[in-house]
Amino acid sequence: MKQLGEGRFYLVREDVLTESMQKTIEAKQLLSSGDEKTIQEAAKRVGLSRSAFYKYRDTVFPFESIARERVLTIFIQLEDRKGSLATLLTIVSEGKCNVLTIHQTIPVQGRANITLSLDVTEMPIKMEEFLHRLKAPDFVDSVTLVSSGAL
User: What DSSP state is assigned to residue 107?
Assistant: First the structure.
């Protein structure tokens, strides 16, 4: 799975997108609707090279899909301390997020990994602020945004 960077995201009008970006969105819609079965077929139908499709497929999304799917997957590396998971879940709760899945590895040499999938539909703060809050406790080594339909 491709990791998303910590860069900013923007909502832009369709007419300012490049032709390749617009065609990538069309091809993705053909695939999701089942009108086309393969990336090659969808790209050919809209007049787009497969390389251009792969270049933009994880970077352009129709607004409706983002508004509908507000799920974050976050990977956290931390020092294994009593109450550390409870502290992180308090931050999640204060951010008005709903935990969909949670996986914590068995601690090895005093370190553990946690993967959280969160519904952030009700989150009132910006994504950057939320990630900053998760990074704040001194036992947290790193917080990585793995995927998001919320950006």
Answer: P
Question: 124-134 burial, b for 16+ CB within 10 Å, e for fewer?
Answer: eeebeebbebb
Instruction: With beta carbons less than 8 A apart as the criterion, state whether 98 and 122 touch.
Output: yes
The pLDDT tens digits along the chain (151 residues) read: 344 445 666 778 888 999 999 999 999 989 988 999 999 999 999 999 999 999 998 888 776 555 555 788 999 999 999 999 999 999 999 999 999 999 999 999 999 999 999 988 888 888 889 999 999 999 999 999 887 764 4
**Residue closest to 43 by CA, chosen among 35, 34, 52:** 52
* Rounded Cα–Cα distance for residues 118 and 7 (Å): 20
Is residue 116 within 8 Å of residue 99, measured between CB atoms? yes
State the Cα–Cα distance between residues 93 and 69, nearest whole angstrom: 19
* Residues 30 and 36: beta-carbon distance below 8 Å: yes
Enter the tokens of residue 25.
């969105």
pTM of the prediction? 0.55
Neighbours of 27 (CB within 10 A): 26
